[in-house]
């Protein structure tokens, strides 16, 4: 009887957590829908978007630069060491270029910006929530989604692609330094292998992911911040929760986005990128 009772309690606890998770996910989707509808109907306040863009892009730039630069160096170091066994060490640029542009650049830039910007958004909105400033905005007849959520989400969506482009170049540059200094591979040859291997479609597939990653960072930060409760302790917990949830969501969505982009016709995607750049 005791074992059956404990099993029943365990099942009830699991069921309650599953239902709670479904409820939270539903609330997130509702906030995402309201944000999209408000952004289309009212339009973003571009002055606030520029302020948030400066926070998301400019202040995240040093962190992204350090992360991707040393990642490119480590990647080149390990890749050249492995390729040396097969006599293909000079072509380290091809692997580094593809890895950085298609995967490491977008993901590392997203994780770095998510850790800084996502935490900042959740902390800021969480502090406003527990001090009843969000309720004050409603009392004055303004929409908190229009004033607080839309500018931050849009700034993240616009900032991350630019940060990723910068990260791609720095990662490749870091790999070039290691290739030339450590393995005596000429920089010109290294860059030639990168240019001949990395195509427009590879670059476009990496950048396309960042729009989704930026949306995830902004939405998760705003959602967690607006649900904060419990005073200063709740703000700290919300900040940690926002970083963890955003990081997991980025890795999970990266898999599905990669699968979807690999199914696209590469020639057509490359043609579209050439048209945009021209």
- C-alpha Rg (nearest Å): 22 Å
SSE order, as H and E?
A: HHHHHHHHHH
Number of strands: 0
Number of domains: 1
**Oligomeric state of the chains in view:** single chain
Low-confidence region ranges:
none
Separation of the first and last Cα atoms: 75 Å
Overall structural class, as computed from helix and strand content, comes to mainly alpha
The biggest sheet amounts to: none
Shape: globular
Helix content: over 70%
What layout of secondary structure does this protein have?
Blueprint: H1 2-41, H2 46-58, H3 61-83, H4 92-130, H5 133-139, H6 144-181, H7 187-197, H8 200-226, H9 231-262, H10 266-277
Helix pairs in contact: 1-6, 2-6, 3-4, 3-6, 4-6, 4-7, 4-8, 4-9, 6-7, 6-8, 8-9, 8-10
Summarize, please.
With 278 residues, this protein is mainly alpha-helical. It has helices spanning 2-41, 46-58, 61-83, 92-130, 133-139, 144-181, 187-197, 200-226, 231-262, 266-277. Helix 4 (92-130) packs across helix 7 (187-197).
């Amino acid at each position: 009887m005791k074992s059956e009772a404990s099993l029943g309690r365990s099942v009830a606890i699991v069921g309650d957590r599953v239902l709670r998770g479904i409820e939270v996910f539903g609330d997130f989707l509702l906030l995402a829908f309201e944000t999209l509808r408000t952004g289309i109907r009212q339009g973003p306040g571009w002055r606030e978007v520029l302020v948030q863009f400066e926070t998301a892009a400019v202040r995240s730039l040093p962190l992204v630069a350090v992360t991707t630069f040393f990642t490119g160096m480590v990647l080149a170091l390990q890749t050249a060491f492995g390729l040396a066994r097969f006599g293909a060490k000079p072509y380290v640029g091809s692997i580094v270029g593809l890895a950085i542009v298609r995967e490491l650049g977008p993901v590392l830039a997203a994780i770095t910006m998510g850790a800084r910007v996502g935490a900042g958004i959740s902390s800021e909105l969480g502090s406003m929530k527990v001090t009843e400033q969000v309720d004050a905005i409603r009392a004055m007849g303004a929409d908190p989604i229009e004033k607080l959520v839309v500018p931050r989400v849009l700034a993240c969506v616009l900032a991350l692609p630019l940060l990723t482009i910068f990260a791609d170049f720095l990662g490749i540059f870091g790999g070039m330094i290691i290739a030339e200094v450590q393995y005596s591979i000429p920089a010109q040859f290294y860059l030639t292998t990168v240019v001949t291997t990395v195509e427009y479609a590879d670059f476009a597939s990496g950048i396309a992911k960042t729009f989704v990653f930026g949306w995830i960072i902004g939405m998760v930060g705003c959602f967690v911040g607006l649900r904060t409760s419990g005073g200063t302790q709740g703000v700290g917990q919300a900040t940690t929760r926002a970083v963890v949830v955003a990081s997991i969501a980025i890795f999970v969505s990266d898999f599905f986005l990669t699968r979807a982009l690999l199914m696209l016709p590469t020639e057509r995607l490359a043609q579209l990128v050439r048209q945009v750049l021209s």
